């Protein structure tokens, strides 16, 4: 099932109109309609707002496998692709039902992980594998290069940006799982 279809199905189960979801998320009715029809993909911040408005964690939209396998092969990772955006997320752990979440994040040049600063419970730690990454956390900015790592209190609004000219690849651990 596509992401948009899952959002529409959950919204309908809760007897919520697009207009009501729009009011709860501060997203336009047109954007929600396009997301539900898989015409456009939501930013992480928009998907976060939708998940909160529908009273689910973000993993509701992606965690389709109940089986547990300790090994996750590169070509079998659950992928979160953002339509019309040069960024993607891959789940490195078998599922999001355990205590830790591991993500492989690729962000293209002049892109960010989100259009807005986001915050959530817990903490996270990331390491840049390739390229560079600017991390905004509260009123601080950190410039990271290959091999650099950072710890963040996830309750402080934050955002990752690739201000470099090549693909940024980083690996992140988050507790508790936020997707």
General description of the model:
This protein has 179 residues and is α+β, with helices and mostly antiparallel strands. The strands form two sheets. A six-stranded antiparallel beta sheet has the order 1-2-3-10-5-8, with no helix packed on it. The protein is built from four helices and ten strands; from the N terminus they run ααααββββββββββ. The chain has two domains: 3-61, lambda repressor-like DNA-binding domains (434 Repressor (Amino-terminal Domain)), CATH 1.10.260; 74-175, Jelly Rolls (Sandwich), CATH 2.60.120.10. The protein is 21% helix and 31% strand.
Task: Sum up the structure in keywords.
179 residues; 434 Repressor (Amino-terminal Domain); Jelly Rolls; 2 domains; 10 strands
**Reported CATH architecture of the largest domain:** Sandwich
Query: What percent of residues are in strands?
Result: 25-35%
Strand adjacency order, main sheet: 1-2-3-10-5-8
Query: What is the overall number of helices?
Result: 4
CATH superfamily of the largest domain: Jelly Rolls
Helix share, percent: 10-25%
Total strands? 10
Characterize the largest beta sheet: strand count, sense, and whether it forms a barrel.
6 strands, antiparallel
Report the top-level CATH class of the largest domain: Mainly Beta
In N-to-C order, the SSE pattern is HHHHEEEEEEEEEE
Distance between the termini: 17 Å
Low-confidence stretches: none
C-alpha geometry: globular
């Amino acid at each position: 099932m596509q992401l948009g279809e899952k959002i529409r199905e959950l919204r309908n189960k809760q007897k919520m109109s697009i207009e009501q979801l729009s009011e709860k998320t501060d997203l336009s009715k047109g954007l929600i309609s396009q997301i539900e029809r898989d015409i456009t993909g939501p930013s992480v911040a928009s998907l976060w707002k939708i998940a909160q408005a529908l009273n689910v964690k973000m993993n509701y939209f992606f965690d389709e496998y109940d089986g547990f396998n300790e090994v996750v092969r590169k070509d079998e990772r659950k992928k979160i692709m953002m339509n019309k955006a040069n960024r993607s997320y891959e789940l490195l752990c078998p599922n999001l039902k355990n205590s830790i979440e591991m993500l492989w994040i690729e962000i293209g040049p002049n892109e960010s992980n989100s259009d807005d600063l986001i915050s959530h419970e817990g903490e996270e730690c990331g390491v840049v594998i390739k390229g560079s990454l600017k991390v905004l956390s509260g009123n601080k900015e950190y410039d990271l290069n290959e091999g650099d790592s950072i710890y963040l209190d996830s309750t402080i609004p934050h955002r990752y940006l690739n201000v470099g000219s090549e693909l940024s690849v980083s690996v992140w651990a988050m507790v508790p799982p936020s997707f």
